What we know:
By secondary structure, this protein is α/β, with parallel strands linked by helices. The chain has helices at residues 7-19, 80-94, 168-186, 189-195, and strands spanning 23-26, 44-51, 59-63, 72-77, 106-119, 122-135, 141-154, 219-220.
Amino acid sequence: xxxxxxxxxxxxxxxxIGCAGPASVPLAYEPTxxxxxxxxxxxxxxxxxxxxxxxxxxxxxxxxxxxxxPERSLExxxxxxxAVRDAFTSALMARGLLAPPGRQSFDLAVRVVxxxxxxxxxxxxxxxxxxxxxxxxxGGGVYTDEVRTSGVGSGPFSLDTAAYVPVSDxxxxxxxxMNKAIETELDSRGFQAAVHRIRVTPAKAGVQAGPRMxxxxxxxxxxx
Length: 224
């Protein structure tokens, strides 16, 4: 018969968890199987990335648990804006779109609206980025889009031991959610049309034209 956990033991375990500092959540780009674009052109460079979440630069979320298991903050490593910038750079490189320094045709800017992960009864993560492409010379905007992704998973506790499971799973979920948002954007028809300067074909007479949206809210503008 298994030995039951004593009250002093539970209190000690709770105390150890309560003393733990913030949990580091590494964020880096890892391809999810998307192949580089066949007609890729190395014409894009990553410019400014703005963290507009209204939170500290490293803040990612909070892990909460059952009674006796206090909240534990989750911190992005590196800080959110740097992580997103590095991830977009790596994803562009994987697709053959990253331009050599100073030789880009377009500058890509990112506004981080949401980048969040947490643990409670379930694991969850969200990413929300606004992406803008501008001409490197002249600064005119050619494309803008907002992309959102989310992910959920099972909770972090073992019912057999009432022990807290490390945050490696929520870290993996956060990374996959961020990467999914980036790949959804870079592989969208709108982004590809803008990068390759593809003119949008006007709607035929008698056919109602919908909004020129790709991904979620993206729209390419015709080449001048």
